[in-house]
Amino acid sequence: MRVIIFLLVLLLPAPALSQDNPTSYIRANVEKVLTILTSAEYEAETNKTEQLRQIEAVVDNFFDSEELSKRSLGQYWKIFTPEQQQEFQPLFLTLIKQVYLKKSITYNDEVVNYNQEIIKSDTLAEVHTTITSPSLNIPIIYYMIRKDVSWKVYDVSVENVSLIKNYRSQFRSILQNNSPDKLIATLREKTNE
Amino acid sequence: MNKRLLLLCLALGIILLQGCAGKKAASSLNQDVSAKQEYEESYDDAGENGGYPDSLEGFNRGVFSFNDGFITYIFSPIDTVYTGFFPPDIRAGFSNFYRNLGYPVRLINALLQFKFDKMAKETASFALNTVFGVGGLFHITHDMPRLQSSPEDFSQTLAFYGLGSGTYLVLPIMGPTTLRDAVGSVADSFAHPLSFVTPDSAKYALIGHDRANTASANLPTYKSIKEESFDHYTSMKDVYFQYRIGLEKE
Predict the structure, then answer these.
(1) What is the pLDDT of residue B120?
(2) What is the residue-wise DSSP string for A147-191?
(3) Angle between the N-to-C axes of helices A48-60 and A82-106, in degrees from 0 to 180, rounded to the nearest 10
(4) How many angstroms separate the CA atoms of B100 and B106, rounded?
(5) B118 SS3 class
(6) Residue B246: its chain A contacts at CB < 8 A?
(7) Which of A46, A117, A174, B2 has its CA 20 to 30 A from that of B171?
(8) Measured distance between the N- and C-terminal CA atoms of chain B, rounded to whole angstroms
(9) Which are the contacts of A180, defined by CB distance < 8 A and separation ≥ 6?
């Protein structure tokens, strides 16, 4: 099996072998966040906001906001006007960042293992990781897409539960009875909390 | 009549798939196309079929809000006392113990699905944790990747033999389940060692403690789902189905 994987690696086009492969992208970002989280510099309560800002700066480029939005809305993406789409994207990105940040903060004592990288095509990949703590293992999968130079995350699943699919279920149930503008307003309210 | 239609669709499906496979082999370029298709599908999959079966939605929503009240006003305060009294290590010890005890249930269901590798993994974990983990209080195999396997239960066995999940169901106190999962957990309870404990008072105390301890461990997740959701009910339902479908696949 390993030999086959090795041979497959040899067959990959050159760009995939460069620094910018999906796993190294995830690893670099996760490590940056962990370094900030565990740094002694931010031990004091007064420095916590600065710490959060630092982490947010890392997470900023982590996600592909258009892809997140499209997938979370599914079929409803098409009924949004271009203006509504433009309005929705940054708000939803903010929400996902908030959720992701909260999760990474609760997991800060654990070890991250990078188990597997599945390259689906030149532009799609999955990175399978496990977070191991003294009492439990949590499988986390990052779903990635490459539109230009860099890989970006478009979905994260924790214990087989995809974040984006979860929001899609909710948005669908909201949009069945409400207008896109109503959803955008709710989203704005939520992210301002 | 319906069966014939189904067969026809199936046959058509197979022909189409073969067509795809043939093309795929013809040109490596098509690898991209199939990945693209998968991408489009996963992006629309829950879109067309209207989501998960929930024919009792009105009832479920009622029970769900009752449960939410119960969790917020009764269970949460009790949990604060409980977690204050028992430190995390002790609570993890309880949950390891009960998990280890559930071994026969997982073994039988792995057997019923012919998952022999899982039976071996479960048996090795059970032996190691029982002997070296002080009767299962320590989950010493948790960082042995080769011994990890997702738990099997009777509902997954029923799914293995082709039974659908049935409607979503929210039970008072017990929380989210499906018709099949509810039947499955009743069946599993007969094989669970705790059901053989006598007298009955001790049996129900232990089962109750197991449930409460698990619920306590899941409380932070419950709270974060509530906080992060727009539609708490739909979000929980989705988490429940995604998680269960994930287990079925493994």
Answers:
(1) 95
(2) SSSSEEEEEEEETTEEHHHHHHHHHHHHHTTS-HHHHHHHHHHHH
(3) 130
(4) 10
(5) helix
(6) 159-161
(7) A174
(8) 34
(9) A76, A79, A80, A81, A84, A88
B219 reaches A (C-beta below 8 A) = no
Give the β-pairing of A151-158 and A161-162: antiparallel
Which chain B residues touch A120 with a CB distance below 8 Å? 35, 38-39
Residues 35-54 of B with CB under 8 A from A: 35-36, 38-39, 43-44, 46-48, 51-52
* Chain B residues with beta carbon closer than 8 angstroms to that of A159: 243, 246
The dihedral of CA B48, B52, B56, B59: what is its sign? Answer: negative
Please tell me which residue of chain A has the smallest CA distance to B231: A170
- Reported ipTM: 0.82
**A–B CB contacts, 8 A cutoff, strictly below:** 90
Q: What CA–CA distances, in Å, run from B8 to A104, B11, B15?
A: 49, 5, 11
SS3 content of chain B, % helix, strand, coil (to 5): 75, 5, 20
Structure tokens at B68: 């939410």
Cβ of A170 within 8 Å of Cβ of B235? The answer is yes
In a structure prediction context, what are the per-residue pLDDT tens digits for chain A, which is 193 residues long? 566 655 555 555 444 444 478 888 888 888 888 888 887 777 777 777 888 888 888 887 889 989 999 999 998 999 999 999 999 999 999 999 888 888 777 766 678 888 888 998 888 999 999 888 777 788 899 999 988 888 899 999 998 999 999 999 999 989 988 999 999 999 999 888 6
**Interacting residues of A42 by C-beta distance below 8 A, sequence separation 6+:** A36, A48, A50, A51, A54
Q: For A131-171, what is each residue's pLDDT tens digit?
A: 887 777 888 999 999 888 888 999 999 989 999 999 999 99
CA-to-CA distance for A139 and A110, rounded, in angstroms?
12
Residues B223, A75: Cα–Cα separation, whole Å: 29
Question: Any CB–CB contact under 8 A between B230 and chain A?
Answer: yes
What ranges make up the beta strands (E) of chain B? 168-171, 175-178
